[in-house]
Amino acid sequence: MRGRKPELKAIEGGLARLPPVPSWLPTEAKAEWRRVVPGLRARKTLTREDLPMLEAYCLAAGTIRRSQAMIATEGDMVKNDKGDVKRHPAFQTMFQALTESRRLAAELGLTPASRNKAAPTGNDDDDLSDLDL
Questions:
Q1: Which InterPro entries does its entry note (predicted)?
Q2: Could you tell me if residue 10 is inside a domain?
Q3: Range of the domain at 72
């Protein structure tokens, strides 16, 4: 895409106020909520129906942080019950949470690419206009 990037437009029913951080979220997930909510609120791109998705995104982001902290503390490799050295099990949890957080971030418009896809271009001219479709 060339030229200026389109701006993300507020959607009908977009919330101007979002509820406070859910108390049940772990500390790391609460921190992510506080980080992303101001931008979502300002853009008014989130509806009440999207709040569970926001909670899931924050939970996944918090899980990534907790897993990484555990790996940093305990090391990349650990011994299992048989004495074999293996990769820390928290890597599996972290990779699954990374996958989920990327998917949810895109759904919420938290990535540059998803913000651009969701925004109308303001250009009704397209390559198919001469095909009378």
A1: Phage_term_ssu_P27 (IPR006448)
A2: no
A3: 27-120
